[in-house]
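New to this. Help decode both lines:
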Amino acid sequence: MKPKSRRNTVFVAVLSAALLVAAVAVAEDVWIKSETVQIRSGKGAVFPVIATVQKGTQLTVVAHEGKWLRVKVGDQEGYVYENAISTEKVGGGGNLLSDMGAGAEATNMSTGAAGKGLAAEADDWARDKNLDPGPMNRLIAFRKSIDPKQWQAFTAEGKVGPDAPGAP
């Protein structure tokens, strides 16, 4: 091996090790503050859920991508929206509505159940209030029918959504 070639190989090895150490050093831990959160395979509600985590779960942030955080969940990486996490340790469990003091009318439906569609408890509650849960169920079904890649192309081309320029 020529001296210059060997020197370049050593330089690349040292640089790679330094980058790896830097990446580990900037690893950030966050905790789930919402009752239940779905970790998705992409940035948006149309992407498939890869994991569901409970309040108080600790996650390691891999990257910040706009308002979304790419996090490590077991041996996978997925996305969570920034409003679902806290940079300070959070205790787990409890009903979100009752924790907020919503009173006797608060159901025991978790925020995760609400995010998946109307749970049976929500359908019952809506019927008790003479509300039709049909339109919301149709909207949820429509959202699930959108291909995540099409959604990503739409939001990128239209510069809309949480990553849009000037989005709060």
About this structure: The chain has a mean pLDDT of 74. The longest helix spans residues 3-25. The longest strand covers residues 58-65.
